Amino acid sequence: MSKAERYRNARERLAEQRRREEQRRKRLRALLVSGGAIALIAVVVVAVVLVRAGGDDGEAVATAPVSRQSDGSIVMAQPGVTGPVLEIYEDFQCPACQKFEEATGKTIKQLAADGEVKVIYRPFSLFRASPEPTRGNSLRALNASLCAPADKWLAYHDKLFEEQGPESRTGFKNDDLIDWAADVGITGEAFEKCVKNTERQSLVDQANDIADKAGVQSTPWVALNGNKLGDVAVFTPEGMREAVRNAPASPAPSSG
Amino acid sequence: MVTDKARDKARDATGIPDAAPSPSGGPPPWTLPAVTFALTVLLAWAAWAKVAQQWAGIAGGAALIALLGWAAATGRAADQMTTAAARAGLAVVLGWAGLAKATEPPALQELAVESYQLLPEGLITPVGVGLPILEIVLAALLLAGFATRFSGALSGLLMVVFIVGIASAWARGLKIDCGCFGGGGQIDDPPYLGEIMRDLGFLALAAWVAAWPPGRFALDRKIGLYQD
User: Fold this and answer.
1) pLDDT recorded at residue A250
2) Residue A44: its chain B contacts at CB < 8 A?
3) Is B105 close to A231, i.e. CB distance below 8 A?
4) pLDDT of B219 higher than 60
């Protein structure tokens, strides 16, 4: 091997080595960049999840007095408070209603307890024309809620939403409905009979009629002084408080 | 360090000069990137505005797959402008979808996730609230062209997850709004096939970005990740 050849070989080796090093550096840089991207994504996502995590809106509160009207609807208001009027149309089998109760249920109770709003719960069966098992679930739960005495109604209503299962499976079985009632202090043969024999069918029909006449097409349908509220008011505590506090105490003349 | 010169070299390497008719006399070179981007934005808009979702999704998704498949098969993969258009299109899709969800109350975001009946209770909130943010961050990364191959691959993975989720809801007979561009929960007649085809189209975009990064105007070039 001549001197010139050896020299060339050495130079090529050196160049090869440099190329490899350059490649390694490039790979490392690509790795670092991807790692940076992952870190960035992770930090931002976790931060926002921690800040925005919705759901629970505070501790349980003392509630305003609750009474039942002749049409089966439930009024929750401090004595003398006549408005603004918050009407809540919901179906016990509706998942969005469960979310609504989780997100703003306690806020609404607090507002009523503070005398800022008169609340009327108007449970009905949105799913009365749906296929089984959704239809039956909805009707059994509604009937049971109408069997519950007014003073324990609110606790039972909360319990029913807590126990809501998927609409694709049979839920709200009569035996369960009776057990859950016992959990909130509703007992007795009269209640059991009322649940098992669907004794409140006429009130169920009446509630459905009222919802139809009010133009309710979906649930939760929450109306303040007769005006349907938007998602922000329905599903965020701040939105609900703001809507109630900005509403006039007497309903608009056009509302029914 | 490696800026315009490298870009010029890259352009030369593609053999497709800027803003001039291609040598073969076919359509001008910007046609492919322009059509790719326009089609993607149109598809995202139709999904967001809920316009003829079933047919828009099927036709748009199929067109996007066909277009990119044809481009790849006919040797247009080296066109860095098309990668840039795919990045921008995917960024519009993810950013739009993410913003539409993120501006809704968290309770509704959770409802959209819950209605798939796939995740355990403890994961509903992190996914419901975190997914839109992930989409927005991915959109920003794609737009900037930072960690392009990784961002493209992760976007593609996300699309696969969406497609599997929608297909599983369909297979289980659920009737839910996919919650892709906000909304969610029960609906009467979900356009599942359109949604899946649409996401397959977006998956093709993501695959393109991951396969031929980083495209023009990419941060990855500026930091010297690509010098071809």
Assistant:
1) 72
2) 133, 137
3) yes
4) yes
Alpha carbon of A39: minimum distance to chain B alpha carbons (Å): 11
- Among residues B173, B170, B167, B228, which one has the least CA distance to residue B203? B167
Within 10 angstroms of residue B172's Cβ, the number of other Cβ atoms is 12
Helix/strand/coil percentages in chain A, nearest 5: 55, 10, 35
Instruction: State which residues form the domain around B102.
Output: 38-222
Q: Does B41 touch chain A (CB under 8 A)?
A: no
Domains of chain A plus CATH, in order, are 3-246 (3.40.30.10)
- Determine how many CB atoms are found less than 10 A away from the CB of residue B84: 22
Cβ distance B108 to A95 less than 8 Å, yes or no, reads no
ipTM value: 0.72
pTM of the predicted structure, to 2 decimals: 0.79
Contact, B37 vs B67, CB < 8 A?
A: no
Range A82-105 average pLDDT: 91
pLDDT tens digits for range A113-129: 888 899 999 999 998 88
- Number of structural domains chain B divides into: 1
Residue B16: pLDDT band by 50, 70, 90 thresholds?
A: very low
Q: Decide if B194 is inside a domain.
A: yes
Query: Given this model, what pLDDT does residue B14 score?
Result: 45
Distance (Å) from the alpha carbon of B137 to chain A's nearest alpha carbon: 6
Going by C-alpha positions, the residue among A74, A70, A63, A61 that lies closest to residue A150 is A74
The pLDDT > 90 percentage for chain B reads 55
- Do B1 and B227 touch, CB atoms closer than 8 A? no
